Amino acid sequence: MANKRSAGVLLFRDTGASTGEGGIEVLLGHMGGLFWARREAGAWSLIKGEYGPEEAALDAARREFAEEVGHPLPDGDLLPLGETEQSGGKVVTAWALEADFDPATAVPGTFTMEWPKGSGTLREFPEIDRLEWCGLPRAHERIVKGQRVFLDRLAELRAH
By CB atoms within 10 Å of each CB, which of 8, 30, 43, 87 scores lowest? Predict the structure, then answer.
């Protein structure tokens, strides 16, 4: 069985602050659902989602951004961040995009799951329950461990 694949976009902006990170902030989404509700560290992600063999990774990344935040991906030059394999085996491909976005305007998509488990009752939960801009040090604390490499790659690209 082939690994599941996800694609996404890491929005970033340069605040001009004189931090050790050059003032870069990234937009992260806190994963929705009951499993993640009380978690902070390792419970945030770039905006991404799964796709199948019939869809190109970049097309999936654009679609997922629109589905998860309720707005089309902003215009701009997409910088490839490559791919990584997360601990569960999912392969994630990502791009970075310098753009501003107001998290307060997000209209998150939802998913349905049985809750409580075994009850036969289906409930809807937001895919992302909040979006926030954060500097790279804080993003490193918050983001899923398997996606930290994308933050490092973005910092490296911005340093050149």
Answer: 87
